Amino acid sequence: MKFNVHRPLLGALLMGVALAGCSNESGKTEQAATAAPVPPAFELASSPARHRLMSASQYQNTISHIFGSDIAANAQFAPLQRTEGLLALGASTAGVPFGEMQKLQRAAALVAAQVVDDGNLDLGVPSHRDSLIPCKPADDKQADPACAKTFLGMTGRLLYRRPLSEARLTQMVDEAGKSAVELKDFYAGLASVIEGMLISPEVLMIHDRSEPDPERPGRRRLDAYSYAARLSFFLWNAAPDDRVLRAAESGELSTAKGRARVVDMMLASPRLEEGVRGFFDDMMAFDTFDNLAKDASAYPAETGAALTAAREQTLRTIYDHLIVKKGDYRDLFTTRSTFMSPELGPIYRVPTPKGWVKYDFPPDSPRVGILTHVSFLASHAHPGRSSATRRGKALRELLLCQPVPLPPPNVDFSALNDPTSPFKTARDRVSFHLQNPVCAGCHKITDPMGLALENFDGAGQYRATEMGTVIDPSGALDGKNFKDVVGLAESVRNHPALPSCLVRRVLSYGTGSAVEREDRPLVDYLTGHFAEKGYRYTDLLREIVLSPVFYDVTERAPEQKSAAATN
Amino acid sequence: MKHSLLASAAAAALLVAPAAKADDTAPPNRTIGYVVSGLYWAVYQTADGKAECPDGLNDGPREHFKALFPDNGTKRPVVDTQLKREAEGYFPTMTEEPFTFHLSQSKIAKGLNLDGKADDNDFVSPDGEKGIDNQLFRVLGCVRGYRAPDGDAYFFDNNTLITDRYDRWLFELTDVDSLVNDDDVTVTTYRGLDGLLKKADGNGMLAGGSQVIDVKWGGRYVAKIKGKIKDGVLTTEPTDVTFPWATFGVPTDREMRGMRMQVKVLPTGGTGLIAGYTDLENWYRQTLRSSSTHHQAYGQVSLPSVYRALRRAADGHPDPKTGENTTLSSALDVTLTQVHIIHPDRPVAQADEATKTAEAVKERAGARR
Fold first, then answer.
1. A342 touches chain B (CB under 8 A)
2. ipTM score
3. Which of A260, A469, B296, B323 has an alpha carbon within 20 to 30 A of B178's alpha carbon?
4. Domain final residue pick, A184, A206, A228
């Protein structure tokens, strides 16, 4: 997509950016939704209304929030296509094919059965129905429309993210009643309706509905429930809870002041952790871990448990740095603070007691920032050896939003794969690449920074040598030369594309729409504010979700709608 | 855990270490920890078993029961048959039964010379060393359950060691200036609390894991022993030890008197022998508690017969009153895996993986070659 900006007003928009810069020089840091005049970049931008497929983690979190964390929801969603750096954008064009729907129905049936189960005290299994259903039927072998209406109305509102219409609710109560009579079980009747809800397109798809914006004639905004859903799936990686829906019902989300209160509440919630993890898991392409396999003979320490822990380590580090410590985003790439688990101990060669513990790498350690975490190093390497190219490419694409062209189809790897090859280190191999003009074009933009990570093998373990030759970890990134990984970390940390890339990704992730070249003024404006606020992640989130670009929408053309619907 | 204190702690440890004395093989902070990751009663076997068991292997509970109570139509109450045999296991006597128990006839046995003598009752080691004391092997050598690779005791004792955490036996070597030659090192034994880490391919244990010492319940497992390393082999002075042991999840202790080690040590682990005098009653009771009759039947371990053999073969620590020996010379094949041993009352050492770890030491040595 491109975020819709009125062309004739582009000049004014750019002026607005400049003005914003001036006003910020005064040192004022007004909260966007409460005081400062909204600059044109905000005023003019909007995002397309979308139909997005809920992700597996969003489904899991939603079930957990509504019914409790002990309800297992093993729903299997088909892998999404990574688009413009994010799986979340792939969700905007994904559908649910029949085979996947069957799996989702099985998961839904299991969830429904758990919700209404009576437990088994002998086995220590609690009765879920007693805690989740707020009423008792007069006869649990018969239909009870009143009780069914109470429960289904309450549950349906949370699953559908808006109150059920009276007609819809009546239909559901009738269905529950018919099933109860047929099965001679009130709770089985409820379960059949819950199962149906859980595979409803209106539940599985996050559908943006819009309405005219009364404050800005001629423009459209998300209706309050769609805004609530967009907010919640973005900030909490789950459907909105009762408090957010009440804010939508009361009209509070339709006012700037009300939106600010709700957003602040959501940013202060423990559920923010799921939102932060969901975003960075996507941005860092950690879905790679779902299928990542390493050569066990080459890397005996790289067990499946270690790879799972590696992903978790980085997500914990990110959450701790950005949210708990309220740290500067850029410092994620130079921080030596992290967490350690027993599975990772042998890879980092660190003593580690049971569980997750905070850990600081020594000041002279080569481990500096999340690029030196096993998660990055192992997932961007070959199964049995490191890869300066893959690491450099990942750095460019994931963190700096700089796409690297795909290699040509006729690459000749024979010289590199020759077992009698004289190349001992990655630097030798890369040098060979650079001799070939066809290869050199791309390798020049990936390898110099990847070489600085060569002190870490394909498993992410430290090494001083490769095949008996001392590794030279010097490198360069866009004109900055460095002698080792510490220099690389500093260069990445100070790279101007680092914060703007995060802004692009956050904006895309939150709205479900890719940021394009035409959106640069908006990105520049947000990046400028991000800088002024000290690169604090929650400030960026707050600014984006309270901006018109997040709640103002442009409806897609009818033909595009039909194409999406058949996807 | 206060990892944040560690840089200074590690630096301080290095400062007090006599760096000039240490060689390239010295572990970080002159300390290296190992966890026992393989432990088998040492049974010397030939390919066909005929040398050590010319009369074949011993029968077990199933065969003995069939001989005692043949299926000839006689009706016998359970109390006089199955329960009687169970009771004979729990209350063993020296009264002979109509079965021949085959002791190992091998001249060769794994083990150490525990008493400093070489007499007729001793074995010769596979390397030709005389005076090897291992009377437990004499008893178990022809019992199927203790023979590799598929004896049930042989398998399950070690399977439990890997899957359970109770029998986590740690050895911490301190004052180590060289893993090749050091005439004065200290070995301290502990019980650990953590699981073992397997290698990614599932074959063998992974070095570099961590073990927290059981300071709450593990006091009886702590022993401080003097030792030395010569040509990469650690030997220790005799010490009485108690060590954790579990089979089939039944937690017990083993008592070994005059325990000593002879283990080839490396930065990533070690292999060798632990030998000493095993307490007879302790060994028998532990085995009885851990293995029900059906397990004994799998391995043809007839415990009433084994008990009598143990009593006859016992060669150590005579009872002051009766003069009867109460222990048997014995040996265990041991495999050690390197771990970081964490003392709960101390800051966790902070490894500098680039310069101080055992792996880095090994790697630097390799680079120089």
1. yes
2. 0.82
3. A469
4. A206
